[in-house]
Amino acid sequence: MFLVLDRLTKHYGGTVAVDEISLTVEKGEFVSLLGPSGCGKTTTLQMIAGFVEPSGGGITLDGADLLAVKPARRGLGIVFQSYALFPHMSAAENVGFGLEMQGVSRAERQRRVEAALALVGLGALAARYPRSMSGGQQQRVALARALVIRPRMLLLDEPLSNLDAKLREEMQVELRQIQRNVGITTILVTHDQAEAMALSDRIVIMNKGRVEQIATPDRAYEQPASAFVAGFLGKTNRLAGTVADDRLAIGGRSFPAPLGYAAGAVTVTLRPEKIGFAAEGLAGTVRNRLFLGSQWLFQVETGAGLVLVLRQNEGGDMPREGETVALAWRAEDMRVAPAS
Predict the structure, then answer these.
(1) pLDDT digit string, tens, across residues 254-294
(2) 3-state SS class at 136
(3) Which of 88, 104, 109, 204 has its CA at 20 to 30 Å from residue 273's CA atom?
(4) Pairwise CA distance, residues 174 & 292, whole Å
């Protein structure tokens, strides 16, 4: 394993910010730390970078104890949310600053700066100053500055959060392509579920300083390890159910009960896109419908509670508000847990 976090912990007085996180990352892998504000993801990144000293646990990078190395000597490329560009320096000067501090010769520095700017698509803007650049262009300069020093690992702290939605999506594609081209191990901190799923080989979902699940994006989405993960990764329905006589009852519908569940109350989580309108099923009334362009989002009042339904827009007629409908889904699309 390239990067290893071993029961990494951080306390601030009586508050536990990070609670014994363990994680292994392969060389060249793209891993995202995902969770709500205050979950400990940024603190974890800062401990890797050396900006925050752990209260316990260890970090090794390529087999060496990273905690024994000063931050400036860890060989890490870091991109912050604010980009932290020098306003009085051009794009080329910003990118080359780290190389200058390392004592790299002028000719070598120029060659590497030109290559780094070309990598992020800014070769023609080398002389431009940050104030004359868009947010997306500034973000690329910050990325080029992090990559030009040829870091052992790239740390990204909410690097796209200041961009508008359309530009953020475009930069996600470019960032992933650059990461693949360079082959650099990357750790991203984000609170954006869609961003984490789009970019990552694996996601570390965090909550209150602890790891809820570590998995590939599709596995975390389709097989969430907890109700928190199911609710945080996209929209989900939480329905009350009852297990009895090897059957699972939800609002008048009956399914085979999952193996190992004793009789009693359970909570069922079900993704909105897994639910369809059918001739027979869970009866309900459409309370609201929203047109999202490529999709329709419905709120349906049922005997099991309010159910979200997400259907692709295929150009046909869709149920209207106030209309009575029947909802159906496959038993294998449900995730069942004891009622809390």
Answers:
(1) 888 776 677 788 888 899 999 999 998 999 999 999 999 99
(2) helix
(3) 204
(4) 25
Residue 224 and residue 250 in one domain? no
- Pairing mode, if any, of strands 210-215 and 237-244? unpaired
Of 232, 251, 268, which residue sits at a domain end?
Answer: 232
CATH number at residue 271: 2.40.50.140
The domain boundary, picked from 186, 211, 232, lies at 232
Longest C-alpha distance within the chain, in Å? 78
Query: What does the pLDDT look like over 102-112, one tens digit per residue?
Result: 888 999 999 99
CA 6 to CA 110: how far, in whole Å?
40
Strands of 76-79's sheet, edge to edge? 76-79, 153-157, 185-190, 30-34, 202-207, 210-215
Phi-psi region of 43 (alpha: psi -120 to 50; beta: other; left: phi over 0): alpha
Q: Write the DSSP assignment of 276-309 as a string of letters.
A: EEEEEEEEEEEEEEEE-SSEEEEEEEETTEEEEE
**Whether residues 68 and 93 fall in one domain:** yes
- CATH code of the domain covering residue 30: 3.40.50.300
d(CA 138, CA 134): 6
Task: Report yes or no on whether pTM surpasses 0.90.
Answer: no
Phi, psi for 180 (deg, rounded to 5): -70, -40
Q: Identify the domain containing residue 115 by its residue range.
A: 3-232
Report in angstroms the alpha-carbon separations of 29 from 70, 151, 152, 320, 321: 24, 14, 12, 46, 46
Instruction: Name the E strands within the chain.
Output: 3-12, 15-25, 30-34, 56-61, 64-65, 76-79, 153-157, 185-190, 202-207, 210-215, 237-244, 247-250, 253-256, 264-270, 276-291, 295-302, 305-312, 324-328, 335-338
Tell me: do 162 and 308 sit in the same domain: no
User: Are 59 and 25 members of one domain?
Assistant: yes
